[in-house]
Every structure is written in structure tokens, then in C-alpha cells.
Amino acid sequence: MKIAYQGEKGAYSEAAIYKHYRKDVETIGFETFEDVFEAVKNGKVDYGFLPFENTISGSIAENYDLLLKEDVFVTAEVFLKISHSLLSHKGNKLDNIKKVYSHPYALHQCHEFLKKHKIKPIPEYDTAGSAKMVRERNKTEEAAIASELCAEIYDLEVLKKDIETNKNAITKFFVFVKKDKVPKDIKKEKTSIVFKSKHYPGALVNCLQRLSKNNINMIKLESRPIMENPWEYIFYVDFIGGLDDENVKLALSEMEAASIFVKVLGSYPEGNKS
Question: Which of 87, 109, 123, 254: disulfide with 156, CB 3.0–4.6 Å?
């Protein structure tokens, strides 16, 4: 089974893949999130595996936009506790570090540590890619923020572990497939949708009441602007219940009648948060 993720070898996404599937899979890294969606669409891989939300930084808007745009279906959610390490060359010291490279989200999550040690953050497209670059550049004043796994892969030293400001950072990943390749044996316990409400007073409430009326527990509601239509919004919703449940079928049917559109993004087992 081939699974696509964004980043270089050792990325947090790859660690999350191994947590979910153990190591009985072939992982393939791509440079951008969009490249991962393309690989799924074109049949180069069986599954895409990307981060969608973090308890500190919030939702990754680009991936939710791609999920709306592309003809894919979410089949699983995976949670991974994120622990950042400062990596540099073997024998280097923390006092030598003046610049650090990493993904903007990782830099943001470690901003207190960087401020305390007067280290300049420099954004890069990927945490693991930053570790690889630091290894290749071989400069004493440079380091990367990445996983401990990257230290093993790229032969770097961990100068400091657990440098994130908030020690409870957890990232939620979605596993997704091409819509015509959805396995028939998925255990459906949660569902993710996106919809656009009509334009009249109470229209949004009217849509959401279709869920409560049918005894469905909504656990996430988030608005996103529509780029093509300034000051108009779509709404992403997660709720407990699967597409095979009769009350879910009824609620979605009623929402479709009450809204401009509804798209089901996926229905999947509830992930283990521990």
C-alpha cells in the first residue's frame, strides 16, 4: 500500500502514518499539500495523509480548501502529539545557534524558546526538509526544528528536546482516498461536511438545527471565506455519527434542502487521541 505525505523523510506526517499503519506501508513524500492530492487523484498512491488541524495553531486552511475542491473522501483521522527538538551537527552547542529553520507552524509553536535564546526563525516549507538542509549546509550557527526521528535519519544531534511552548500540542491528520476507491468496510462513527447557507436572517441557524433536531452532536463548526466572493462564507462541520445512520441521512437531506450546497468530505472511525 502506497501512502503520500507532504515533506521529506522523517516528517511528522510520516511518523503519524507509522503510528496508524505500523510500518507495513510504502511512504512517499511530496513537496506540497496540493501535490499529495494530485498523487491520490492520479492513482500514483492509494491514500493521502495530511495534517488538518492543530490544538495550538488551529486549522490548516489550505488543506480544508483542497478537500472542498478535490474529489476525495476522508476514511480515517489520526492524532499525533507533536514534540519539537532543536537539531544541529554532532558536537555543536546551543550557544552557537543564531538561526533556525523549520515550517512556520513549528516556528510559531516554539517562539518562546527562540525568543529566550535570541535565535532568528527562518521559515521553510517542511520540518524534515529543514533538518536535511542544515545537515547539507554544515554551518555551526544553524539548526532546525524537527522530530527526533530526523536526528537519526540525517545524522544530527539533538541540542534540546521538547522546545515547544505548549506541551499539549496535538495534530489531527486525515487519511483520504479517491472517491471511487472508498473501501466498503469502513467503520463510520464521525462525519465531516462543508456547506453554504442561504442568505436570509436565521439561515445558518436553520441549517444547523437540522442536526440537533435529528439528535446529532456537532463537535466542530468553522467558517472559511469564499475567495471568489468577498464577504461570503462556507462552513465546515464535524459531527458524531456515520453516513449509514438513519438520523444522519435524514439530517443531511434536510440540510441540502435548507442550504445552497452540502458536500460530505468523509465518514470514518473516531480516532484515538492518546
Answer: 87
The residue annotated as part of the active site, out of 27, 127, 171, 191, is 171
- Is 173 known to be catalytic? yes
Can 27 be counted among the known catalytic residues? no
Q: Cβ neighbours of residue 35 under 8 Å, at least 6 residues apart?
A: 4, 6
Q: What is the number of structural domains in the chain?
A: 3
Structural domain of 141: 85-160
Which of these three, 149, 179, 209, is where a domain ends? 179
Q: Pick the catalytic residue: 52, 173, 176, 195? A: 173
Residue 66 and residue 90 share a domain? no
Q: Average pLDDT for residues 229-235, to the nearest whole number?
A: 93
Give the tens place of pLDDT for each residue, 89-121: 999 999 999 999 999 989 999 999 999 999 999
